[in-house]
Amino acid sequence: MLDNIGELVTNDPSAGRGASAQAGLGVRRDAALLIESGRIVWVGAAAGAPAADEQVDCGGAAVMPGFVDSHSHVIFAGDRAPEFAARMAGEPYSAGGIGTTVAATRVASDAQLRANASRLTTELIRSGSTTFEIKSGYGLTVVDEARCLRIAAEFTDEVTFLGAHVVPPEFVDDRRGYLDLLTGPMLDACAAQARWVDVFCDRGAFDADESAQVLAAGVARGLVPRVHANQLQRGPGVKLAVAFGAASADHCTHLSAEDITALADSARSSTPTVATLLPGAEFSTRSPYPDARRLLEAGAVVALATDCNPGTSYTTSMPFCIALAVREMGMSVPEAVRAATIGGASALRRTDVGRIVVGGSADILVLAAPSYVHLAYRPGVDLIRQVWRRGRCVRGGRTDRTLGWSR
Ligand code: NIG
Ligand code: FE
Known about the structure:
Blueprint: E1 2-9, H1 18-22, E2 27-36, E3 39-45, E4 56-57, E5 62-65, E6 67-69, H2 81-88, H3 98-107, H4 110-126, E7 129-135, H5 142-153, E8 158-164, H6 175-190, E9 196-201, H7 208-220, E10 224-229, H8 237-243, E11 248-251, H9 257-266, E12 274-277, H10 279-285, H11 292-298, E13 302-304, H12 318-328, H13 333-347, E14 364-367, H14 374-377, E15 384-389, E16 392-395
Parallel strand pairs: 1-4, 1-5, 6-7, 7-8, 8-9, 9-10, 10-11, 11-12, 12-13
Antiparallel strand pairs: 1-2, 2-3, 5-14, 14-15, 15-16
Helix pairs in contact: 4-5, 5-6, 6-7, 12-13
Bound molecules: N-(iminomethyl)-L-glutamic acid and fe (iii) ion (FE).
């Protein structure tokens, strides 16, 4: 039993009142919740809480669903700190930088890739992400993509095949040859280990025709599409994602009016194409941020994710992304918190995570703060006091029964 919760964000609109309910956060005051066998079995007023075997006194702190990070690239080797430093000194970002990580990943052992992924997923979990997606895309040979996916699957069920990240150097003069490999033997080796297929549809990566071939080949093998779309410039990525019924169009930095309409129209379906915004990438490439306000006002479903990768966004922190979204992208705090939780769940087509409801997975954060607002109000401060994942306390110590937020 998590008891004495000062402010409980449920993402269940029927649960709250006033402004927070309108934003869909479903905030309850003075609440409690009960976990059993990894699931939430009761949510309600602290005063009416049933008896439980074990009690955690949250001391009036804010409690919320774990973050759902629907976009990461944490299977890789090496480091691109010099590239980052050069960018901050005025160099532009280009998709070509991916090649540096591909070269390092190919020569890394499985043990090295696993150790790096373990370090980064530990960071993800400690910063409150209880569900996260992981992509391949730094192997770009049959053997390397397959082993990257195999290692990714050791850390998450949400595994994405991104063989179409860039055309690798050995195929620069034979794009057709790489597409044949990608849509043939590489997919044959990879499809069984992935749930999703992704393509980087942008300048320096894949064009509309090539991207459509990749997505169609993935769909034919039972994978569900998602697309890296409109990160570097306006282009066909978003429209392609919607046309393929993709679960998400990710980045959405440079959108036309038609792109926004297409995303908003798809939001009326039960399986929308979610606009997944990755502000860590704009931060780390010193680029203009996407206009979240336009997307939200048009009615699109919006998610926030880290895009954790060594090139454009080497952060595992969803709270950092929330703070950026609020400060730089025109999102209100409730909108950003929803996008980082239930928005990410929509982008992964999951209904069991991203909410605190009876029957849902017990993925819960106890904050070292009286309100979720502090996630944006206190940027750069680690406010994750306790993390519960599938009903297990994975950060914060179960013995620390009294968490104590003095009001
Ligand atoms: O999502 N846009 C494509 N892929 C990554 C960047 C990868 C890299 O630079 O290594 C992204 O930003
Ligand atoms: Fe990405």
